[in-house]
Amino acid sequence: MWETQIDVGAEFQSRISLAGVQPTPDRRQFIYGELQPPTMTRRRAFLGMLSGVSVSLAGCLGGSDEPDVDRGEQPTADETDDDEPVIPNTEVYDFPPADEPAEEAPDDMFCGVCNMRPANFPEANTQAVHDDSHRQFLCSPGCLIAYYTQPAEFADTDAQLEHAWARDADSKSLYPIDEFYWVLEDPDDGWEPDENGRGLDPMDNPLPYVNREDAASYTEQWDDLSETDIVTTDELSEEDAKTYRSQYV
After folding, report:
1. Where are the domains of the chain?
2. Cα 56 from Cα 21, distance rounded (Å)
3. 16: helix, coil or strand?
């Protein structure tokens, strides 16, 4: 039986057995959608204690004919936290400094635009960091463009966007976003990603290349593309974001 010491005045103290008080799981969710494991805090225990104190006092003063009920093992005070549970965020991860990219996306994080798991797309995922060190992972270049051109729509922080990285379409290595040349393929042209080596999953994406020559070489492979479809990061716009992520922008 779980017991809690209650100070009822300077003249006397007593222990009141809290019959019928069950710990309930904290219903908060992780920032990125995972349900937090059940937990009990002293603050929550105290609220439950108040609701059951009249029943407990009646049982202590007047006795009760009710049989004892096995309510399972209850947490002790030593097993509870002093404060409310801490909701996990990027601070619990061992990320590099804010001006450096993390090599891998954590398995339990979700894309800031489409809500898929960036870790499932290791050759396409991207990331961004704000000046308060909030780090956001994204599943693909298309989601990065939406996030980069409209951070106020997607970011979980009001802090300014300071850094962003994408993966070179050839090497799959991470580079700062301002070093890329982007091939803006039009997904309405009817092609599918990975069809004959074209495009990049997941969904439709512009292709980022660190070397302009590589971008030009890619456009030469397809009749509907030309070097006029290559832009720098500074030329990316909200309209480009709508082209690739119209369902979210």
Report:
1. 3-79, 93-245
2. 10
3. strand
- Look at residues 135, 219, 203 and name the one whose alpha carbon lies nearest to residue 174: 135
Pull the structure tokens for residue 239.
């309209």
Report, in angstroms and rounded to the nearest whole number, the Rg of the chain calculated over CA atoms: 28
Angstrom distance (rounded) from CA 231 to CA 198: 18
Q: Which helix (H) or strand (E) holds 205?
A: none
For the stretch 133-147, pLDDT in tens is 999 999 999 999 999
Residues 143 and 126: their CA atoms lie apart, in Å, by 8
- Determine contact, residues 114/185, Cβ cutoff 8 Å: no
Dihedral, CA of residue 213, residue 162, residue 92 and residue 157, to nearest 10: -120
Contact criterion met (CB below 8 Å) for 218 and 225: yes
Longest dimension (CA), the chain: 91
Cα distance from N-terminal residue to C-terminal residue, the chain: 54
Does 202 sit behind a cis peptide bond, omega within 30 degrees of 0 on the bond before it?
Answer: yes
What is the mean pLDDT for each group of 10 consecutive residues in the chain (249 residues)?
41 38 37 37 40 43 47 45 45 86 95 97 97 96 97 95 97 97 84 71 94 97 93 97 94
pTM over 0.85: no
Phi, psi of 56 (to 5 degrees): -65, -40
Token pair for residue 14?
């007593």
The Cα 245–Cα 237 span in angstroms is: 12
